[in-house]
Amino acid sequence: MALAHSLGFPRIGRDRELKKAQEAFWKGELDETGLRAVGRELRARHWQVQKDAGIDLLPVGDFAWYDGVLAHSLTFGVIPERFRPASGKPTLETLFAMARGVSGDTCCGGAHAQEMTKWFDTNYHYLVPEFTPDQQFALSWEQLFEEVAEAHALGHTVKPVVIGPLTYLWLGKLKGDAQGFDKLDLLERLLPLYGQIFQRLVEQGVEWVQIDEPILVLDLPQDWKNAFERAYNSLQREPLKKLIATYFGGLEENLGLAANLPVDGLHIDLVRAPEQYPTILDRLPAYKVLSLGMVNGRNVWRCDLEKALAVIGHAHSRLGERLWVAPSCSLLHSPVDLEREEGLDAELKGWLAFATQKCAEVALLARAVNQPDAPEVRKALAESRAVQASRAASPRIHKPQVQARLAAVKASDSQRRSPFAQRIARQRIGLALPPFPTTTIGSFPQTSAIRLARQAFKQGKLSPGDYTDAMHSEIRHAVEIQERLGLDVLVHGEAERNDMVEYFAEQLDGYLFTRFGWVQSYGSRCVKPAIIYGDLSRPKAMTVEWIRYAQSLTGKVMKGMLTGPVTMLMWSFPREDVSREVQARQLALALRDEVVDLEAAGIKVIQIDEAAFREGLPLRQAEWQHYLDWATESFRLCASGVRDETQIHTHMCYSEFNDVIESIAAMDADVITIETSRSDMELLQAFEAFEYPNEIGPGVYDIHSPRVPDTAEMVKLMRKAVQRIPAERLWVNPDCGLKTRGWPETEAALVNMVAAARQLRKEL
Ligand code: GLN
Ligand code: ZN
After folding, report:
1. Rounded to an integer, what distance in angstroms lies between the CA atom of residue 541 and that of residue 651?
2. What is the residue with the minimal CA distance to atom 4 of ligand 1?
């Protein structure tokens, strides 16, 4: 019998109950008992949902307050000094303090939160463990064992899930004076903790544990590879069966290593890396379980069951009982339950599967090899075939016009008419800006009045005319303030935008939206990505009227504001039937029309945001160049429909530019604004070393905090910039958009910023 299991289920709840409960707890509206009750309720429900779907072995340990990596840090006692409780024993309060920081005015003084960063190439963010060279580990948190007991009490057969020792260490950072110390040296100290955990699980009657080691799909340094064998040899003693789980890519050169670790099973991701099969069969020792990740845990599409069954059937004939069937990775990255989407178009809904439905798909695949003649199996396969056929032929997806336009794209379409040097000369004449021109990144404070107006409009309580009036008055307000402050290139403030991707997606053909398709981004924050389901096109202009209105209010230059094709793609659920590259290029053409229309409306500066450009880099270095090529080309295709006189800006948030600077330069934006203030302008090093030729606006203040930096501080930062980049190519701007800020601090900071630019001009 092939076994169906799940690597993890979303923890947020179908109505984002976890988010709501955590936020209520933080506000003091819910006590700890109440919060814990919500957690228990969610776990019980999620186990039942998975069991009802036909999953044989249920995950425990996938639930977490705030973040799962954080839970491991508590488990191991990896609690930075500044959060260490006097009693020695961490509490929920300790956990949330590590996640969110503690403000300075409380009893115990302030403590900044742990750093947060992207979980591999997903849009989930985890809290980075902080190690010190003298780091000690001690079992300090009972949550996993409590939850195992809880599941057992409910009569479930479970498989606890832990992050493996090497992945855990890899994800962490050394702090303090760690010169010359290698965090891998902490391994010997950490391993006994795993021994203790496994021992406890054995005592609880657990048979299998899942150990996540997704770093096995990365380019690993040799000493890390070597450490794998050492670590798992030493963990061999515990009489607990171990399944090593890998996901988000192929094992490639680590395949032999992973297959031969002294454990009882291996999970591989055949959605991301189908080529691992059947190679793996020849490499896997004959006693081991092989878990095949067949159902995509990272996207929203129904699985092509017949295609998956071709692999599963073959694997079953070779492995028999040793075959397990699973989603590709934890379902943490999928929305919870498609059944919630009552309002969704029936045909589109028929193409989708969320976490709950994905569990049923996994179970069905196992069933299909165990009982191929069961009527449910036949029915499900027939249905899957029909869905695949309807999608493959649907005119809602396949648009000959869009495809023809893409096919007709010429190399010159992604090329500005003249080289930068000529363009900038023309732009300087047309724009007549002072040296060190000042601008902002696009958004101004999204006040509650703005949000309320938008909500009322969406609910039909505010007429389109009244809504337009409300937004116009916001734009007027933003323009007045910017004129008063003396900024050089103005923005309209983005009041009408809920989100920089969704706003455009809603106006493009080929996107669909769910009402409850939330996935956790970090902590209590969830996002509801739009879904690309078909060929993408722009039925009509999206931003032109707003920007035209804004420009009509001022004699200064008004900057048009768009989200770029790569970012649109990275922050959406993409199609699986065409490549990401094709989708990016379709988006590029749709946005290109908007760029051209803005120019025709008299807009002289157009910013195309590419916040997700750097974060789209594949996990494996060998795949970088291909990605960078199409990402760069998509941006250029989007930006190159305009005259030389029109100035194209792009913007990127906190990024490491060293390894991608060549591609940043190849994007050929006339101006790039970047987030640099927290790096003390260090990030400009990459631009300097590469002799980046175009203009740069290095952010002079951090927009994540309400703190108002003074003029001297910004002048000092810009002086550092001048040492790296010629003054005539520098702009002065904040790090990013100001939508999360309030007006008072925004105005105060911008007054100082304009003063800083004026001072710098005097120094020229
Ligand atoms: N134009 C956007 C804004 O100002 C850019 C946001 C971003 O880069 N994340 O809000
Ligand atoms: Zn930004």
Report:
1. 22
2. 737
Asked if 724 and 684 count as a contact pair (C-beta separation under 8 A), the reply is: yes
**Which ligand sits nearest to residue 653's alpha carbon?**
2
Relative orientation angle of helices 711-724 and 743-763, to the nearest 10 degrees: 50
Residue of 500, 703, 735 to mutate, ligand 1, most atoms within 8 A of C-beta: 500
For the Cβ of 739 lying below 6 angstroms from any atom of ligand 1, the answer is yes
Tokens 């931003």 sit on residue:
543
How crowded is residue 182: how many other Cβ atoms within 10 Å of its Cβ?
12
Give the residue carrying structure tokens 């488990």.
Answer: 75
Cα–Cα distances in angstroms (integers) from residue 588 to residues 22, 564, 624, 632, 738, in the given order:
39, 7, 20, 11, 26
* Residues 439, 431: Cα–Cα separation, whole Å: 13
Answer yes or no: is the C-beta of 672 below 6 A from any ligand 1 atom: no
Closest among 365, 352, 376 to 308, alpha carbons compared = 365
Give yes or no for residue 327 CB within 6 A of ligand 1.
Answer: no
pLDDT for the residue 183? 96
CA dist., res. 533 & res. 301, Å (int): 9
User: pLDDT value at position 511?
Assistant: 98
Ligand nearest to the backbone CA of 673: 2
Q: Cα(165)–Cα(186) distance, rounded to whole angstroms?
A: 10
Q: Residue 571, annotated ligand binder?
A: yes
CB-CB contact of 2 with 323 (8 Å): yes
Residue having the nearest C-alpha atom to atom 1 of ligand 1: 442
Report the alpha-carbon distance of residue 50 to residue 358 in Å, rounded.
Answer: 9
pTM: 0.96
Residue closest via CA to ligand 1's atom 3 equals: 737
Q: Tell whether 74 is in a known binding site.
A: no
Residue 343 among known ligand-binding residues = no
Residues of the chain short of pLDDT 50, as ranges, are 107
16 is in an annotated binding site: yes
Indicate the SS3 state at residue 29.
coil
Q: Are 2 and 369 in contact (CB under 8 A)?
A: yes
What distance in Å separates the CA atoms of residue 404 and residue 398, rounded to the nearest whole number? 11
Ligand 2 mean position to 612 CA, how many Å? 9
Hey, is 208 helix, strand or coil?
strand
Whether residue 611 has its Cβ less than 6 Å from ligand 1: yes
What tokens appear for 390 in the block?
A: 């309807």
- Atom of ligand 1 at shortest range from CA of 441: 4
Q: Are 572 and 505 in contact (CB under 8 A)?
A: yes
Q: How far apart are CA 16 and CA 335, in angstroms?
A: 10
Q: Would the CB of 183 count as within 6 Å of ligand 1?
A: no
| Ligand 1 atom at shortest distance from the alpha carbon of 497 | 10
Distance CA 478, CA 726 (A): 31
Structure tokens at 231: 């670590």
Q: Element (H or E) spanning 324, and its range?
A: strand 323-327
Neighbours of 658 (CB within 10 A): 12
Whole-number Å distance, alpha carbon 181 to ligand 2 midpoint, is 34
Residue-by-residue DSSP string for 467-506: HHHHHHHHHHHHHHHHHHHT-SEE--B-TT-S-TTHHHHT
- How many Å apart are CA 409 and CA 576, to the nearest integer? 23
Of 351, 343, 352, which is closest to residue 393 (Cα–Cα)? 351
Identify the residue whose tokens are 């952010």: 699
Closest of 43, 86, 82, 87 to residue 65, by C-alpha: 43
ipTM score for this prediction? 0.99
- Predicted confidence (pLDDT) per residue in 218-258, tens digit: 999 999 999 999 999 999 988 899 999 999 999 999 999 99
CB 236 within 8 A of CB 262: yes
The pairing of strands 671-674 and 525-527 is: unpaired
What does the alpha-carbon distance between residue 460 and residue 456 come to, in Å, rounded to a whole number?
6
pLDDT confidence of residue 109: 61
Residue that is written with structure tokens 């010190």 in the block: 132
